[in-house]
Amino acid sequence: SVKATVLSNELIIVASETVNFDSELPHYKTEGGVYRDPTDDGRIYSPTIMWVEALELLLEKLKPKINFSKVVAVSGSGQQHGSVYWKKGSQAVLSSLDPGKSLVSQLKDAFSTMDSPIWMDSSTTKQCREVENAVGGALELSKLTGSRAYERFTGPQIRKIYQTAPHIYENTERISLVSSFMASILVGCYASIDETDGAGMNLMDINKRTWSKAVLEATAPDLEQKLGNLAPACAAAGRISSYFVERHQFDKNCFVIQWSGDNPNSLAGFNTEYTWRSCYQPWYQ
């Protein structure tokens, strides 16, 4: 499902709405919001355009409850590890959305694949071992990226697409996580992946907070260009797109703050302070 909660500046809940994928968007015929591929063991994915339609429906459900022009900032939490593949030319589509038309009608052809691999997928064991071996083993990968390779992580998922569907990879202009995908729609251009969600991809050097060139090279060619730059989790992705200003009457100065993953956002919600050991053991075993 996708859920929106509107807070006042005193952090009081003003309104809340939810869209359930299975019951409210039944034409996608998902079960639990996903598809399970009967021909590819462990392959589980969601239809990308369903998330777009869910966002539209969510805003329509909120419209009677709040005045969008009073919204100062929007941010969000996306399911971690899921990925979206924008096809070449989609940046131009995002930046010129017609407020008289739905998002679905304008973005239905914006993706090089309509299937978004998600965290439930376990079909990339081969790619996990290949990436680990390329950088010197699972322990070396964990030192670089924070963990050994896991099937659900975005790096192995990207490598699988590159290997099994090279035409899709070649036609991809930008790879987003679910979090940066939703932020991209709201700002009308490609939003950066934030550092905290990016840390769960098996692609980022967690000590330098940059993409690891060694792991990128082990994953797929020209990957850094397709990923774009990383951004701090607290940064502003930009002002809200004119599409939402004209269609839903958001204020043109409304900020879109970097979206992140559900796991790091849940951790942040605990309001807990951590002290790191000076010599930590990466999450390997």
TrEMBL record:
InterPro entries: ATPase_NBD (IPR043129), FGGY_N (IPR018484). One of its GO terms (molecular function) is D-xylulokinase activity. The keyword Phosphoprotein does not apply. The keyword Transferase applies. Residues 118-267 form the Carbohydrate kinase FGGY N-terminal domain. Keywords: Kinase, Transferase. It holds the Pfam family FGGY_N. GO terms for cellular component: cytosol. One of its GO terms (biological process) is xylulose metabolic process. PANTHER family: SUGAR KINASE, XYLULOSE KINASE. Belongs to the FGGY kinase family. This is Carbohydrate kinase FGGY N-terminal domain-containing protein. It comes from Aegilops tauschii subsp. strangulata (Goatgrass).
